[in-house]
Amino acid sequence: MRKPRVLLADDHAIVLEGLTRLLEPEFEVVGNAGDGRKMLEMAARLKPDVIIADVSMPLLSGIEAVRRLREKGSRTKVVFLSMYADLELAREALRSGASGYVLKHSASESLSRAIHDVLAGRVYVSPRISGDVLATVQQGPKRPDRSGAGLTARERDVLQLVAEGRTIQGVANILGIACRTVVFHKSNIMDKVGLRTTAELTYYAIQCGLLATPEPVFGHPKPAKALAASA
Q1: Phi and psi of 101, rounded to 5°?
Q2: Which sequence spans correspond to the domains of the chain?
Q3: Which whole number is the average pLDDT over 12-18?
Q4: pLDDT value of position 80
Q5: pLDDT score of 217 more than 60
Q6: CA atoms of 41 and 158, how far apart (whole Å)
Q7: Which residues are registered as beta bridge partners of 8?
Q8: SS3 of 182, please?
Q9: Bridge partners, 152 (sequence order)
Q10: pTM of the model
Q11: Which residue, 97, 93, 75, 78, is CA-closest to 33?
Q12: Residue 220: pLDDT above 50?
């Protein structure tokens, strides 16, 4: 019997190595992607049954990458693996087109079951947050939307890269567009979301799940506001 084919996407090599060791006895790990753009390229080429992805990755977030997978008509199942038990983030992850949301601390116990559940057409969310997450998905957003849905795909690209600290020239090089086009998009983003500083854009990108945040220090992630203030 053929093993389900799994693609891993995370910007931390140690996480990719650990996941590979965890999954290989039961699944065929077909590749590792270190950012969202690489994940899209490898998904199109390898056509895995399931993608295990971090929510926030460099160059293109996991949530944005899944949106684009769905826009292209891909039916590959996606399970997000995140260190954050954030209900709004989990809700956006499912609304983007994912079928699972697993907390990293419980991956060794839950990830295999999550993969089998999504392949069977079910939704899997870590038990610690499942009730609240599924309730918010069914009821719809009760707080202001923070998905960046009002921005175009290109504007979300620019927002993430600017928030990561890339220069205008750096953003232009990555996206293959002119510097003046980057400036134009950045100006449009600021007008649409009503923000005026890079620090504010950074915090907004974190809220949208676009920005790769640092690993926790001694189990405590750096607060989003503190990260934005240091941008």
Answers
A1: -145, 110
A2: 5-139, 153-229
A3: 93
A4: 95
A5: no
A6: 19
A7: 32, 52
A8: helix
A9: none
A10: 0.73
A11: 78
A12: no
The pair of structure tokens assigned to 212 is 């790769």
Strand order in the sheet with 28-33: 28-33, 5-9, 50-54, 77-82, 100-103, 124-125
Q: Tell me, what's the pLDDT at 225?
A: 38
Is residue 136 within 8 Å of residue 142, measured between CB atoms?
yes
Residues listed for the chain: 231
Task: Scan for tokens 């609304």, then name that residue.
Answer: 95
Domain at 153-229, CATH class: mainly alpha
Rounded CA-CA distance 172/170 in Å is 5
d(CA 156, CA 96) in angstroms, rounded, equals: 14
Give the angle 108-114-115 at the CA atoms, nearest 5°: 100
pLDDT in tens, 125-154: 988 777 656 555 555 544 444 556 688 888
Q: Which fold has domain 5-139?
A: Rossmann fold (3.40.50)
Q: 160: which 2 tokens?
A: 């993430």
The first and second tokens of residue 177, run together, are: 């567009």
- Of the listed ranges 56-60, 98-102, 115-119, 128-132, the one predicted with least confidence: 128-132
First to last CA, the chain: 51
Q: Are 5-139 and 153-229 equal in CATH topology?
A: no
Q: How confident is the model at residue 224 (pLDDT cuts 50, 70, 90)?
A: very low
